[in-house]
Amino acid sequence: MVSTHIVFWRLMSLLVKPSGGTELRVDADPELWVYRSPSACRPGQATLVQCYEKTITSTRKEFGVHLAELTVDPQGALAIRQLASVILKQYVETHWCSQSEKFRPPETTDQAKAAIRELLPGGLRESISKVRSSVAYAVSAIAHWDWPEAWPQLFTLLMEMLVSGDVSAVHGAMRVLTEFTREVTDTQMPLVAPVILPEMYKIFTMAEVYSIRTRSRAVEIFTTCANLICAIEEMEKGAAKALIFPVVQQFTAAFVQALQMPDGPSSDSGLKMEVLKAVTALVKNFPKPMVSSMQQILPIVWNTLTEKQPLQTTVPPHCSSSPAYSVNSKGKQKFTYVRTEVNYTEEVDDPVDSDGEVLGFENLVFSIFEFVHTLLENNKFKSTVKKALPELIYYVILYMQITEDQIKVWTANPQQFVEDEDDDTFSYSVRISAQDLLLAVAAEFQNESAAALAAAATRHMQEAEQARKQWQRALVEDP
């Protein structure tokens, strides 16, 4: 095997070029390429990088194998492993299959492909998340071309990792499945769905075994498969009946339970967001089998929109019909979103996924509004929105309020206010999302929406007056 340090410096030659007095020596054997002064390097130009890459890949057919070896070597230096894993991702994209849009010759040899497929699954158990994620991406990219014909054992390996109890292995396998299902072909889906969907159901429902984020990813994979199966159904009638209808009812029942679960060790806004995306996909793509479940789903989604998070256990009787309010020590009611985002009187610890994306309450609100939009687009469910208009518009107005952050930004920069509030703005917020929903229901139910809007405005004014009186009373009572 080639010296690790020699291969490392050869990798570096792809990304940097010599500067100053540093001299690059290229020997006749590309295995011996080294820097005389590797410490004096700076970012290189594309032309030089392309030159080195072309030379290396054309003269060394085992280059991809060396990258894989460096990536999964547990004794290797972290910097080398991370660099190798990044270049490995690029290598698979450009040199694995001549049918790829990003392909550049030469194509990886069959012998090298077999060696890489043998090496990479071990990297999915890697404790270093960045290396593990890069390996997962490479595995999924290879699977797109090689599964099942050239890599039939891949899914068996992934399923073994999912039940291994190894946190890193579970995360690695789920990352592969997430990436793979996004690019799965219509010819692969009939083989993928019967294997993946039952396992995703098990993971999602086993809250005592799998983390919230892993279960969220299982729901995301289900949603991706559901959308693709719908697309396949348009070309091949019967695909949905064979691939997803057998599991729709059990998934729907699990989704209902998940939406009812209060935030805690086994649930949060991020998980509920993914669940609502899945429910929305089912309602949009397969409305007929979802009709029987909507009587259960609709009240729960509605309760999620108006979710109650009391600061104490007792709620005044007059607030029982408004579960979106919480109660502080003075008996004042505050809407959850208003408390945490508009007035910013309470800190909220938003969950974060493995990619660093913040999964805040506002993301859950976006999913709920998208769900309502989907109901409006389907004649089977449009009437349910019409019946709920008075309460829906009441809460939509609450979500349209300006947040504390927006006040600060717009006060400092009025031009930003103009840009953010413009009808053609590219920015998106809960406020804009609520406005869009209000306009959508108003366009669909003009007379009913006008009456509901007037009633909601009156109700808000009455509650504001009541809150003002309570505030004044509190000032008098405080010493």
UniProtKB/TrEMBL annotation:
Under InterPro entries, the record lists: ARM-like, ARM-type_fold, Importin-beta_N
Database matches in Gene3D superfamilies: Leucine-rich Repeat Variant
Q: What biological-process terms (Gene Ontology) are attached?
A: protein import into nucleus
Q: Does the keyword Nucleus apply?
A: yes
- Localization annotation: Nucleus
Keywords, A to Z?
Answer: Coiled coil, Nucleus, Signal, Transport
Q: Tell me the SMART domains matching this sequence.
A: IBN_N (SM00913)
What name does this protein carry? Answer: Importin N-terminal domain-containing protein
Query: Origin organism of this chain?
Result: Pleuronectes platessa (European plaice)
